[in-house]
Design brief:
4-stranded mixed beta sheet; 4 strands; alpha+beta; globular; Glutaredoxin
Length: 80
């Protein structure tokens, strides 16, 4: 199962990234466990400077933007 974390304070973009990630992986039929990381210290531990951030299997794949669904699916396929 894919471990996914959405890094962010809960802003509109953070919520949108979570929704897009869930939709992309559900459409692709990929099993995942998604957690939201909202604690500033925990977010900074990943070394990103802007949110939202997307982490798959402890690897930061995106920061400061919302990737397209197809890109999320491609990353997930590579991470499995």
């Amino acid at each position: 199962m894919l471990s996914i974390k959405v890094l962010g304070s809960g802003c509109a973009n953070c919520k949108r990234l979570e929704a897009e990630t869930r939709a992309a992986l559900d459409e692709a039929g990929i099993a995942y466990d998604l957690a939201k990381v909202t604690d500033y210290a925990d977010i900074m531990a990943y070394g990103i400077l802007s949110t939202p951030g997307l982490v798959m299997n402890e690897k930061v794949l995106s920061a400061g933007r919302i990737p397209k669904r197809q890109q999320i699916v491609e990353w997930a396929a590579q991470a499995e």
